[in-house]
Amino acid sequence: MNIAVLLYDQLSSIRPLPFSLSDLLLVVYFHDIEKPWKYELREDGQLYYKPSMQTKEGHQQFRMAKLKSYGIVFTPEQENGMKYAEGELNDYSNRHRVMGPLACAAHMCDVCSARLWFNHPMENNDPWPGAKRIRD
């Protein structure tokens, strides 16, 4: 979410964005909500993927059903952001755009978090102001 704030501020200072920071934070916050339900602990202590969660489509179906059960309703743009925050996958087409602007920004945040700063915050002396690891 910190990346979303930084990215939103930088991009919107160059050209107005067609979505709000709140929309971006909403999508970034909820786009992986299935993770606590995605795994099951076996008797041998190993985690394994539940069969229904082994595809991105399965993740998306579970995610939207779970959020609906909590009474969370998305605008079409927010729903597109949720669907494509991890890329266009099998929906990619060079004939029409499926990922909307909000989804694009959420995807940029997701990729940055997962591939650029995957091991941050650093254990000690992280240069990002206020960044720290929380210990139990």
UniProtKB/TrEMBL annotation:
Listed name of the protein: HD domain-containing protein
Organism of provenance = Candidatus Yanofskybacteria bacterium RIFCSPHIGHO2_02_FULL_38_22b
